TrEMBL record:
Source organism: Aceria tosichella (wheat curl mite)
Family: Belongs to the peptidase C15 family.
Record InterPro entries: Peptidase_C15-like, Peptidase_C15-like_sf
Keyword presence, Protease: yes
Gene giving rise to this polypeptide: PGPEP1
A Gene Ontology BP annotation from the UniProt entry: proteolysis
Keywords carried by this UniProt record: Hydrolase, Protease, Thiol protease
Transmembrane portions of the chain: none
Entry GO MF terms: cysteine-type peptidase activity
Protein name per Swiss-Prot or TrEMBL: Pyroglutamyl-peptidase 1
């Protein structure tokens, strides 16, 4: 029996529920594969909680695949993240903590003056700044573009009601943080962002997550 670990997040900000967890909890994510055991875990939207959890999940379950699910409330598709940056993580979590909070001083200083450090131009509405230092990134072992292509073919065939797209920006919040932490343990990990339930029913989101896992397992068999 091989384990697949799937994580979803708890509540954060003003969200009354989080479909990244609601779609996978209570054994609802069973696959029609007799040799696969799906383990689901809820993750607090906390950097410290992620630090304490991720290595333990890899050590305890020794999964062939780990899939992290997060909420992108305004998306109209499933977003599969290609890379995970190691920073800067400046947005505070539910505990009002952020690993790179000190870098806010750099950002706020240049935003206040309207200096666009990325282009060298000056603008009163400058809001995106070049970070004070460069951060590495980690990448999954999967060819995410190929995975998306396969999933969208199934979407066009009516196998799943939600479309899929690749992304290289997981948001530099706890979502991207858990992804980079996981990839630094093992590259057999993927992060997917799901839309909110005001855009798609929870059952459709769950079906899409299942299909992503199925395609990733098929890809893994080819890699191995």
């Amino acid at each position: 029996m091989r384990n697949v670990v799937v994580t979803g997040f708890g509540l954060f900000r003003d969200h009354k529920s989080n479909p990244s967890w609601e779609a996978i909890k209570d054994g609802q994510l069973k696959l029609d594969r007799p040799n696969i055991n799906v383990v689901t875990k809820q993750v607090k939207v906390s950097y410290q909680h992620v630090d304490q959890l991720i290595s333990r999940l890899w050590d305890e379950y020794k999964p062939v695949l780990m899939v992290h699910v997060g909420l992108a409330a305004f998306e109209d598709s499933i977003r599969i993240e290609q890379v995970a940056r190691h920073g800067p993580y400046m947005h505070k979590d539910v505990d009002q903590q952020a690993p790179h909070e000190d870098l806010r001083l750099f950002y706020e200083k240049h935003t206040a003056t309207g200096e666009d450090t990325a282009s060298g131009n000056s603008s009163s509405s400058a809001s995106i700044m070049e970070p004070a230092c460069k951060f590495d990134c980690s990448q999954s072992c999967f060819n995410i573009e190929r995975v998306c292509d396969k999933l969208n073919k199934l979407h066009k065939q009516g196998k799943v009601p939600i479309g899929f797209k690749c992304s290289q920006d997981a948001g530099l919040y706890v979502c991207e943080y858990i992804y980079q932490k996981s990839l630094r343990v093992c590259n057999r990990a993927v992060f997917i962002h799901v839309p909110d339930t005001d855009r798609f029913p929870l059952e459709d989101i769950r079906s899409a997550i299942k299909l992503v896992i199925e395609v990733l397992l098929d890809e893994l068999n080819e890699i191995e």
